[in-house]
Design a protein that fits this description.
- This protein is an alpha+beta fold and 172 residues long.
- The chain has a single domain, classed as NADH Oxidase (3-Layer(aba) Sandwich).
- The protein has 5 helices and 4 strands; from the N terminus they run ααβαβαβαβ.
- It binds flavin mononucleotide.
- Flavin mononucleotide binds next to strand 3.
Length: 172
Amino acid sequence: MDFLDLVKSRYSCRAYTDQQIEDSLIQEILDVGGNAPVGNGAYDSLNFTVVKSEEALDRIREYSAKTGSDRSLGAKVIIFVSSNNLKNPISYENVACAVDHMALAASNLGLGNCYLYGFIRDMVQENAPQLDVLNLAEGYVPAAALAIGYPDLSRVKPPKVELISKVKINHV
Ligand SMILES: Cc1cc2nc3c(=O)[nH]c(=O)nc-3n(C[C@H](O)[C@H](O)[C@H](O)COP(=O)(O)O)c2cc1C
């Protein structure tokens, strides 16, 4: 897709169909995430975990829904992005760059997606047992994730058609 069309039409998708996502598409998304800019080129500080099995997704959903609604949004795949250096704030920026790259890659493939932060922060703060599902190497802690699935077009808000910025801008 043309870049401007992509960024104009992207949106946070919070309703997905049951359709499985092809592994080749997941790989394409991971490849893009792995090419995001990373401070000091510290790529090995990051880890992507693809959660796709129904058992693993169910455990994540069970945790995410304990406040009421399923904060994992019923996604068919969740890619967790972890870092082994979260004491350094730059790591959160690295994670955000990777997640946003993957989000745009997913949108470009026609896949709905949504940046996930809130319940992942809670999982880490509570040291939730569900973190075991991620099978992370020693020292890696999840900081955010990307929910992915085919959008349920009857339940998602219509994509934007133009860039509408509410961000303050000043020129000096
Ligand atoms: C750092 C960050 C954290 C976010 N965390 C969540 C989240 O935990 N759950 C969620 O549903 N959306 C989350 N979002 C999505 C935002 O709510 C969404 O991007 C914003 O409302 C603008 O809507 P749009 O993406 O549809 O344009 C997050 C986005 C960012 C950038």
